[in-house]
């Protein structure tokens, strides 16, 4: 299960020295029922699905994306791989474009944004986050 970056993965990202826009590819698998045990302050009165908890996270997050000049470029349904591990599936995929790695880090460190991260943690059974920098086509 992968839900948060490690110190090592953060170091590797910074070592890439991405100087232009960066896209974040999110692969997400939801829990059947959201687990708010680590964030009881955000828990709803009645149980909700992982997808519903993620929708709460997304509603919380979208304004913060706008403040750093980022935008949700793609969101779509997933499933099983055509090429990849046969037992691995993803419920949705997101592609979020940031103007820079600094913009991503600014948002990720914003305390108001971080206050809603519990919805994401409650929602997800597993995830992947892959930073993508565009090739220079000149």
Give a description of the structure.
This protein has 138 residues and is of the alpha+beta class. The protein has a domain at 27-78 and 85-125: Alpha-Beta Plaits. It has five helices and four strands; from the N terminus they run αβαββαααβ. The protein has helices spanning 7-15, 50-67, 101-108, 111-114, 117-123, and strands at residues 22-30, 71-80, 89-98, 124-133. The chain has a four-stranded antiparallel β-sheet with strand order 2-3-1-4. The longest helix is centred in the middle third of the chain and has 18 residues, at 50-67. The termini are far apart. 14% of the residues are buried. The mean pLDDT is 95.
Characteristics:
Alpha-Beta Plaits; 138 residues; globular; alpha+beta
Q: Could you provide a short overview of the structure?
A:
This protein is of the alpha+beta class.
Q: Widest sheet: strand order? A: 2-3-1-4
CATH hierarchy: architecture of the domain at 27-78 and 85-125: 2-Layer Sandwich
Q: What Rg do the Cα atoms give?
A: 16 Å
Q: Alpha-carbon distance between the termini?
A: 39 Å
> How would you spell out the order of helices and strands?
HEHEEHHHE
Average of per-residue pLDDT values: 95
Largest sheet: 4 strands, antiparallel
The CATH C-level class name of the domain at 27-78 and 85-125: Alpha Beta
How does the overall form come out from the CA principal axes? globular
Report helical residue fraction.
25-40%
């Amino acid at each position: 299960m992968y839900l948060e970056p490690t110190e090592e993965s953060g170091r590797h990202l910074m070592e890439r020295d991405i100087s232009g826009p960066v896209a974040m590819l999110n692969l997400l698998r939801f829990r059947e029922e959201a687990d708010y045990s680590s964030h009881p302050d955000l828990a709803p009165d009645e149980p909700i699905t992982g997808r519903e908890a993620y929708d709460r996270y997304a509603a919380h997050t979208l304004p913060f994306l706008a403040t750093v000049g980022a935008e949700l470029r793609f969101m779509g349904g997933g499933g099983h791989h055509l090429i990849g591990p046969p037992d691995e599936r993803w419920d949705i995929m997101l592609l979020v474009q940031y103007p820079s790695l600094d913009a991503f880090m600014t948002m990720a460190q914003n305390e108001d944004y971080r206050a809603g991260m519990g919805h994401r943690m409650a929602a997800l059974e597993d995830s992947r986050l892959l930073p993508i920098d565009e090739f220079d086509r000149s």
